[in-house]
Structure formats: C-alpha cells, structure tokens
UniProtKB/TrEMBL annotation:
The chain crosses the membrane at residues 75-94, 115-136, 176-196. It is a multi-pass membrane protein. This is Integral membrane protein. Pfam families: Mpv17_PMP22. It comes from the Eukaryota. It comes from Amorphotheca resinae ATCC 22711. GO terms for cellular component: peroxisomal membrane. Keywords: Membrane, Transmembrane, Transmembrane helix.
C-alpha cells in the first residue's frame, strides 16, 4: 500500500501539487486548463515514440537504414487526432456516470463498464486505424485486420484495464486518468509492436531464404 501510495503521489504531485514548481505540476495544471490539447500532445508524442522505440528494439529499418519510418508521423497523427479525443470523450462519460459514487460496488461497476463498453470501442478504432496505416484500402482488408486482432487485444485489455483503473480510482485525480492510461498503453503497445515487427521480419527472412534456396535448386550444379 505504501509503495502504491508513493507512486501515486509521484505521478500526481499529491494534494499539494498546485503551485509547486516543476514539470509535473505544470503538466497537471495544463491538464486542468487545456485538457484536450494537452491529451492530444501527450498521446501524439507517445504514439510516435512507441513506433520509433519498437522499430529500434526489433531492428526494423526502412530502405535507407533508418528507424524513423513513415509510420512514425502517421502514429503521431493517430495518437493526437483520433486516440486522444476519443479517450477524452469516453473517459469523461465514464467519470460523469459514476460521479460522486465511491462505494466498492460502484468502483467494480465502473471497471466492468470500462472493460465491456469503452475498451471494445477504443480497440476497434485502434485496429481500424492500424490497418489503414499499414496499407489496408478496402473494407474487406480492414475487417480482416479487425477480426484477427480484436480478441487478442481485448484479452490484453481485460488483464491490464482492471488493474490500471483500480489504481487510477484510488490514487489519481480524474484529470490525470487519460495520460496515465496513455503511459500504460505506451508500455504495452511498445512491447506488442516490437514483437509483431520481429515476427514479420523473421517471416520475411524465411521467405527470402526459401526463395533463394528454391532458385538454386532450379539450376543444380
């Protein structure tokens, strides 16, 4: 409990954060005075950094040998103009539905609503956006991406969301919820993205090796 309390205070600045110097206090003030803009900048930056970091971990370079691929600015745009506004609206609705309700039953119900209604909406929008960024141009391609990824993504959400929401309920002011969820999503997304990239690169190397071996077999000795 003490460790979790210390983490919560470190993230929020505690009850006395207003007027304190430092980046965290200034950031939290911006969340209160300019919530949507601050969330857009946060989500856009984290989404771009996630793509860049995942590419570096997976050693996934573009044709020029750089980790800064065309996906980086696209992910920044997704984070700023799609993910952040959507999260802002959905979390505001969730908070208003349970405003003033602090009982254990209300908190559990809030977690259930988040997992069964909000998470599916956010994950669907995420998968559709990722499909388009990856080059999907038809409804069939987008639907295939959603169908393949929806349940795996939801399973991750069902494991992590109750824990992160329970932490936010206990230790964070409501205006800090969305950025906190963004940070958690950044860590999970970076891991998933890097693993996906590694698998894709391994498949490409295997296909290239098989094609090269097949070419040699066509012209023996």
């Amino acid at each position: 409990h003490e460790l979790a309390d210390e983490i919560g205070v470190a993230l929020t600045g505690g009850k006395a954060n207003v007027g304190q110097p430092g980046y965290l206090a200034a950031y939290l003030r911006q969340l209160q005075t300019n919530p949507l803009r601050t969330k857009m900048l946060t989500s856009g930056s984290l989404s771009a950094l996630q793509e860049l970091l995942a590419s570096w971990i997976a050693k996934d370079r573009n044709k020029n040998g750089h980790y800064f691929t065309s996906r980086v600015p696209k992910m920044a745009a997704y984070g700023a103009f799609i993910s952040a506004p959507l999260g802002h609206v959905l979390i505001n609705i969730l908070q208003k539905l349970f405003a003033g309700r602090t009982s254990l039953r209300a908190k559990i119900l809030q977690i259930l609503v988040s997992n069964l209604i909000i998470a599916p909406i956010q994950n669907t929008v995420y998968l559709i956006s990722m499909a388009i960024i990856a080059g999907a141009r038809t409804i069939h391609q987008v639907h295939a991406t959603w169908k393949a990824g929806f349940m795996p993504v939801m399973k991750v959400s069902w494991v992590t969301s109750p824990l992160t929401l329970a932490f936010a309920q206990k230790f964070l002011p409501e205006h800090a919820w969305v950025p906190f969820f963004n940070i958690v999503a950044f860590c999970i997304g970076t891991y998933v993205n890097s693993v996906t990239k590694k698998k894709r690169l391994a498949a490409l190397r295997k296909r290239h090796f098989d094609e090269s071996r097949g070419g040699r077999d066509d012209y023996p000795g």
